[in-house]
Amino acid sequence: MVKLAFGSCGDSFSATSIRAYVAEFIATLLFVFAGVGSAIAYGKITDDGALDPVGLVAIAIAHAFALFVGVAIAANISGGHLNPAVTFGLAVGGHITILTGIFYWVAQLLGSTAACFLLKFVTHGRPSRRTV
Description:
Layout lengths: L8 H4 L2 H31 L7 H22 L9 H9 L5 H25 L10
Helix pairs in contact: 2-3, 2-5, 4-5
């Protein structure tokens, strides 16, 4: 049975809730930055490096470590969702309110977008593949 709880604005804007949103933002930013950054870095140091099995394993391990760090950072504060699909599942299951889930989504999407902009800045916007 689905239990949906909408929640109240007072609960969603409390200091504890704001702290949870910031934790989701930072954890998602770190996860996306490390994961996508590892793929970009591996692609820059090798010729078509992402196509070989060693490259795929290295990138997957970097994603796994980044996910572990992100969840470890946010687990005690917000639950360490880091993924809008996980947040949606918890909201539909009644473990968090719909309003809190929406704010988590916003924090997660802003965190991943900020990570992509930061990666574009750090890599100077150059493509990972070498072109002639």
